Amino acid sequence: MGQPRSSAIARRATRSAVVAGALAVVTSACGILGGGGSVLDTISVSSSRISEGAPLPAEYSCTGKRGNPPLRWSGVPTPRTEAVAVVLDNNVAGFDGEVHWVLFNIDPRTTELGDNIAQSMPTGTGQLRLANGKVGYSPPCRPDGNYRFTVYALDRKVEIEEDAPLSDALQRIAERTIARGRLTAVHIE
Fold first, then answer.
1. Who has the most CB within 10 Å: 52, 102, 162, 181?
2. pTM for the complete prediction?
3. pLDDT digits 0-9 by tens, 17-36
4. How far is 118 from 34, CA to CA, in rounded Å?
């Protein structure tokens, strides 16, 4: 009886280590998800459903059924941008962090994503498999999280498969980033 419990604990520890490793890689690479060392151009990020520093509406959390919230951005440096990426992560002090969504190779002429885009992804856009095994938007659950929707302008497309390790994909996004912007929701309603 002790074996299944040990195995489940080991799987959870492995998943936490993978997420922590992925965030560490990206944090060190151009400061993408973390504070950052490089000076990047700035993208303005907004939403009709989320205000900077306000709670994430529960309908976009694991208790809701809406999927992702709508996002809009401006200030992508053209013509240097060949693709856009969007990453949703949770950055809470004392917590390893979680990545809830990674979109990449969005057409640089795209300036917004609609509410719950799972059924209508922009052509050519890829999504990654997350540490929880899900591809696409994985709704946040931690009520005390800091949920960061970050938009990245990339100087070239990211060549990576959906099943690639999260740390590899985040590293490639970091290496290609020329501008970024962020909208942060604090806590869940």
1. 102
2. 0.81
3. 444 444 443 433 334 444 44
4. 27
